[in-house]
Amino acid sequence: MNYDVIVVGAGPGGIFTAYELAHAGRGLKIAVLELGKPLDKRRCPIDGKKIKSCIRCQTCSIMSGFGGAGAFSDGKYNITNQFGGTLYEHIGKTEAIELMKYVDSINLSHGGEGTKLYTTANTAIKRVCLENGLHLLDAQVRHLGTDINYVVLENLYNELKDQVEFHFETAVTGIRRIDGGYEVDTAKERFTCRRCVISVGRSGSKWMESVCDSLGIPTMSNRVDIGVRVEIPAEIFAHLTDELYESKIIYRTQKFEDMVRTFCMNPHGVVVNENTNGIVTVNGHSYEDPSKHTENTNFALLVSKHFSDPFKDSNGYGESIARLSNMLGGGVIVQRFGDLVRGRRSTEARIRESFVTPTLAATPGDLSLVIPKRILDGIIEMIYALDKIAPGTANDDTLLYGVEVKFYNMEVEINENLETCCPGLFVIGDCSGVTHSLSHASASGVFAARRILEEI
């Protein structure tokens, strides 16, 4: 065998798998195969001047490379079992929290020291939410910020590069079982290993399905999250973000009884493009450095859609909506909330005259032509509900960017060790369909590494 362990994917799950294995002092030969580029070579060509929108690079540097899609996120690590995935169902609630705290300690020791840990404990905001039909979920939130998150990843890579072989810009084309381990094919060469850990994130969901098909690994239908990213003046949500930073709020709509939730809150942040398998969607980032703060706060409003027989392709459904947005707007569409409720499209003039200055150059348009009515009705209802606890949320000039889609892999059947029915093949992180956050994905990497060390 070329290696004792091959890790496919250098996102948070893959990084913490390699970290735990390398620090065990067992002299293991470890390789990490990554589709994207090293951290210092990850560059998005959008500069806001010459290039204002996504040009659909062959490999998106925002989504792929060392650090995964979380590398240029706002670096929020939510320590909780209430959201971010169902890792606790496999390993237990206590161990899941302990692993998330362990990951937090590693981040702090690699450049994250001094960053703030927020908590929902004993907050009066929970009561205010309940009085208005909203539900605030419990969590501790470590906010590194996009800038400090980059420093942490840089330090982790510098520590690992002499103990782990990294192969960047290496697309894995297939994985096969062989006697005593696995054969991993890439466009460049073939590798063999005794154990393999797959951690390719949400953007690798289609590839993960093909691997499961080829190896006969059972999967179950999962969900897709569809919604918009809201951008408002930072003052409107300041009483929430100053105390909690990230407030995960859930609302059940009166019209359809659908669940709408806030996601990925970025105080004083920026709205950005994402390219997933050639489809341009929207996301948000924020920085720890005050000099990089903007006057706006952004967050997502998402509705989860689950499907049953005969339709099972939840990701395909989300992709079709995102493609429609790309077709109409050439990428991301932006619309004033006032225009949306009046049934008219936004224009460049209306956006320019808005009191909220957009942080992303998006195409003014009409989201009602893209997002299904039931989902859009739920989002509008949620905005009015949030306006009760944060007056100004439902202002005419509130900006809505669409679409935001969170793709989830078909949930892979794994056991209590995060191991598939193929012995020695582990599936972790967001590509497993089990985790949906930086903290859960990182914790799953540590857990899988420890199980491998026990087996060895």
Describe the structure.
This protein is α+β, with helices and mostly antiparallel strands. The chain is built from 12 helices and 22 strands. Strands 5-13-14-17-12-20-18-19 form an 8-stranded mixed sheet. Strands 1, 2, 7, 8, 9, 10 and 22 form a 7-stranded mixed sheet that branches. The radius of gyration is 21 Å and the shape is globular. The two termini are 15 Å apart. 53% of the residues are buried.
Give the helices and strands, then pairings.
Blueprint: E1 3-8, H1 12-22, E2 30-33, E3 76-79, H2 88-91, H3 93-112, E4 117-119, H4 125-131, E5 134-136, E6 140-143, H5 145-160, E7 165-167, E8 172-178, E9 181-186, E10 190-198, H6 205-215, E11 219-220, E12 223-233, H7 238-244, E13 249-252, E14 259-266, E15 270-276, E16 279-285, E17 296-306, H8 314-329, E18 333-336, H9 337-341, H10 348-353, E19 363-364, H11 373-389, E20 399-407, E21 411-412, E22 425-427, H12 438-455
Parallel strand pairs: 1-2, 1-10, 2-7, 10-22, 18-19
Antiparallel strand pairs: 3-6, 4-6, 5-13, 8-9, 9-10, 11-21, 12-17, 12-20, 13-14, 14-17, 15-16, 18-20
Helix pairs in contact: 1-12, 3-5, 3-12
